non-specific serine/threonine protein kinase
Amino acid sequence: MPFIKKNPKKVGLAKIAPKPISKPKEESDSSSDGYENSDGEYVEKPKYYRLGGYHPVVIGEDYNGYIIQKKLGFGHFSTVWLVEHKENKVQGALKIVKSAKTYTETALDEIKVMKKINECDPERKENVIHILEDFKHNGPNGQHICMVMELGGSNLLDLIKYYDYKGIPINDCKEIAKQILKALDFIHTKCGIIHTDLKPENVLLSFTIPKNKKEPIPKIIETKLADFGNANWINKRFTDDIQTLEYRSPEVILGLHWGCPVDIWSHGCMIFEMLTGDYLFKPKQGKTFTLEEDHLAQFIELLGYFNKKYLNIAPQTPKYFTRNYELKHIPNNELHLWKTKDVLIEKYKFSPEIAEPIASLIEGMLIYDEDKRFTAKMCLEHPWFK
């Protein structure tokens, strides 16, 4: 049943290493590309170092003038390495994509998106990661698309973890939220790009989070929106299978048109998570109801019932709702309505004076109708940021 009225969650490994949104047919035989080794590190499975898969990398190797320094991590599509150019000494993050055709096509689309960002921000002033270079590399497992990105620091999830999932200080949260909104306004209005996968892992900070929690966090926080591998153009869609579950918007679940407002919805969820350390929505499948029904029930509990006109035009409404506009397997009398402001005050002990403007902003970012939902610019003009 809906999360916010139940036991609070603390983020686990699923949050740190989420499953990909969609998986190409080449590798549908596995639910995960990684595992925890004997040292407690989450690493990629050796079986994916094969034709069509990852490229084997050795520290000190030269890739188009960039020398491999150390491994930064991996994802479903690629491994990522710290590199330094042997001539100009510029450091970057080298992303080496799996060589299968599906990944190559996705990478080429990502490069087009990144080049559009560079074109719209030649002086690199915006709060987004930029691409420095791209090239192809032939290896034993095929030809790999390579992208050298600006180097970021820790991600926002690392900061949430630093504070033990109890919430980032409000002033820091406000500054981070504002910078993300500026980045969204830039990609939406100047670039014609929808990120579609906004979450803490995809927001990079300008510093490394201390492992020792006695060490203070730097006072100046600069954020950069990263990972445009799932991005879509406003006027061209690559897929409708978008957004990580906890940040997924109702229009995506119900099969309606979606656009830039999906990023605003995700960011509204993320602001709550920054402030509290908890997901705003954490749907789970039950014995009598589906994952999507629980997700919709959680929306209703926090934001109220869906407008009948809205449900009448949603293609997936018959799948989840009765003719009386009730969820098929979660009746209205089992829902517990709880306003955002009250959640912040009663569960997280915010004062009413602090909770009210936060709730006002978040609820504006979580309006069901995408045409009425706040834009990034509208959010930046909200009293909470004044």
Residues 128 and 224 are 4 Å apart (CA to CA). The chain has two domains: 13-149, 156-385.
